[in-house]
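User: quick one, fold this
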Amino acid sequence: SHFFGKADFQRSKRSVTILNLACGICEEARTMCSFFSTGVYGMPGTNVELVGVDNDELAIHRARLLSKQPGVFENQSFLIAANCRFLVGDVGHLETVDGIPDKADIVVLRHQFLLADALENKDGWKKIIAEAVNRLSDKGYLLLTSFTDQERQLVEAELSSLEVQILISAKNPFSLPYPGRVGVAFDQSVAVAQKR
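Assistant:
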């Protein structure tokens, strides 16, 4: 957690904008909103805005429904929908999507090859990574996860060609195996980068 400067976000009581590219149903929305909150630990705060973008209309519909389901913390229900927006759009061409923040404190991009139609579409995922870096604020963080070691290596190579510094790149001990695929796991590796 120290890589994200959570203490700095909380001390300043500043607002935090999270842009989640190719978010799918964005199961991680509640966790991210809670983590960066200035409120009670575990509760989404009003200082966090999350914008998720995906070209899959059904996934965005499901993300909107999930974000409206109440969470429970110390026997109190809460919602996060007020600070989360989910938009249908092409993450490779964010300029065509209305409602996207110009800059974000945190840009999330999970499973690059899945969202870019596998290894054959390297130009597609390179464009998406470039879009992610372009939307990153000067002191913001880019969070990327990968399915495989090969994917992680290619992502790191692409990041090194851009104006970012990789702060951490590590195996995720909490990743879950992808059913029926050897050597493939959800969020198998995690990288955190920042603009130089």
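User: anything notable?
Assistant: The longest helix spans residues 122-134.
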